Amino acid sequence: MASVFLWAVAGTQFIFWMTALGAALVFFFAGEAELRFQRLLLGFAGGVMTAASVWSLLLPAIAQTALESALPAWLPAASGLLLGAGFLAAADALQRGAVGKERMLFTAITIHNIPEGMAVGLAFALAADGESLAAAMALAFGIGVQNFPEGAAVSLPLRQLGAGRGRAFLWGAASGAVEPVFGLLAFCAAAQLHPLMPWLLGFSAGAMLYVTVRELAPEAGPTVGVFGYMGGFALMMILDVALG
Fold this sequence. Notes:
The protein is mainly α. The chain is built from 10 helices and no strands. It has one domain. Helix content is 83%, strand content 0%. The longest helix has 34 residues, at 35-68. The protein is globular.
């Protein structure tokens, strides 16, 4: 049990540092990007968040409910989706102003990262009960690789929205800080939290989709933003399917 706990610590730390590494991409862009590049980045962020909502959150929520619950498979995912969107709508109303988009992007990715961290913690908890440790390690690796573009999806658009590089990086890296915390909490309370995962996954998806439609899509603009969106969606889809 103690050795598996150490693996859980390492796995949840890995997914955080991959988020921070993705956020660090903001330091490789000199000066202010042109409008077309700004739209490309905002569209990319929206594509990443949409694909992550589907493959990382909603589909796993539906699959878990179908296997483990007497509820309709769609109910927790759909209910959580609406609750997550409602939560972000309320947050949007409370934080209008110059930093509203910064907080909105940060909040959406952070909420999305909570169940990801919990999923890793639960996987290592299952390994402690006799399931495959290799499967838990593979899940941590897959989520970590997925977190790289998610960190960039926070820091790069924030840079284009006027934040300094250091500030944009800190927002992006901090969005992943919840993963080790909730991952280890989930490891220690696996039996109690596991039934709630479909609701939490749906909630996260609703938060991310709200931000994509409300903030990112209008800013992404015409054709170049659309191609950025498609590229971000395709990249996140490939990572989720290949490594999920």
